[in-house]
Amino acid sequence: MSRPETFDDAILRGEYPLDFVQPESSQRFVLEILVARTRALGPALRILECGCGNGGWLALLAQVLPDALDHSFYGFDISTEMVTLARTRLRDLVPGARIQVGSVLMDDAYEFDGSDGSFDLIFAYDLVQQIPRSLQASACEAMVKRLSSKGSLIIFDHERFSLHGARMGFKKLVTRITGLPLVPRYFCEARYPSLESLKRRMVALGRTVETRRSTLSPKMALVVR
Questions:
Q1: What is the pTM of this model?
Q2: pLDDT, tens digit (0-9, with 9 covering 90-100), for 135-149
Q3: CA-to-CA distance for 224 and 146, rounded, in angstroms?
Q4: Among 39, 44, 140, 171, whose CB has the most other CB atoms within 10 angstroms?
Q5: Distance between CA atoms of residues 189 and 156, nearest Å
């Protein structure tokens, strides 16, 4: 059996370019939530994206925040090729040392510039689905541990137990087994999480969690305070 496709493979084939951005419907949903939470948290924030990909979300967020220069932006990704893209895309916004290779489950991913690894806003877009289901709750707990006393975590993903989740699960299965390209092959390893289960896990840790749903797409968000 051939090894699973990865994002590194997609980048090297030119399928995930430097200027890649998510659909406008996703942009509107994500940025609305991020901007509102940033304003609520106050000035001079430490903002971290876990699984930052090619840096697209950090770049878009900086464009829409009027006080972007007052904040410090950080990101990590498990893909070395993604980190290379992100450092290039964000070179005028984020020092290269603040974008690094790392896993959401490992402590060193959150350590930058000799800091204590505490952040005021942490967000992750379609990251949890890239983690084996047995470790998804642990990944969320790892991010929560890195919040400052006033901090918030925002998890953007799809619900496993939904019509969209069922449809995508079928398409990924067909693509993986038959090779019929119903979805890109690097999508096939994604496993949508049960966002409701993750919410209960965060509440058990003493956190307040709000579920937000996009009106334009199947995307959902857990806002953890």
A1: 0.94
A2: 999 999 999 999 999
A3: 12
A4: 140
A5: 18
Give the model confidence (pLDDT) of 191-210 as tens digits.
Answer: 999 999 999 999 999 999 99
Q: CA 46 to CA 120: how far, in whole Å?
A: 5
Q: Find out whether 86 and 112 touch, Cβ atoms under 8 Å.
A: no
Beta carbons within 10 angstroms of residue 199's beta carbon? 18
| CA distance between the termini of the chain | 43
Backbone angles phi, psi at 33, to 5 degrees: -70, -45
Q: Domains in the chain, start-ordered, CATH in brackets?
A: 7-159+193-224 (3.40.50.150)
Q: For residue 5, what are its two tokens?
A: 């496709």
Burial, 121: exposed, middle or buried (Cβ in 10 Å; 0-12, 13-18, 19+)?
A: buried
Asked whether the beta carbons of 62 and 35 are under 8 A apart, the reply is no
State the Cα–Cα distance between residues 95 and 72, nearest whole angstrom: 10
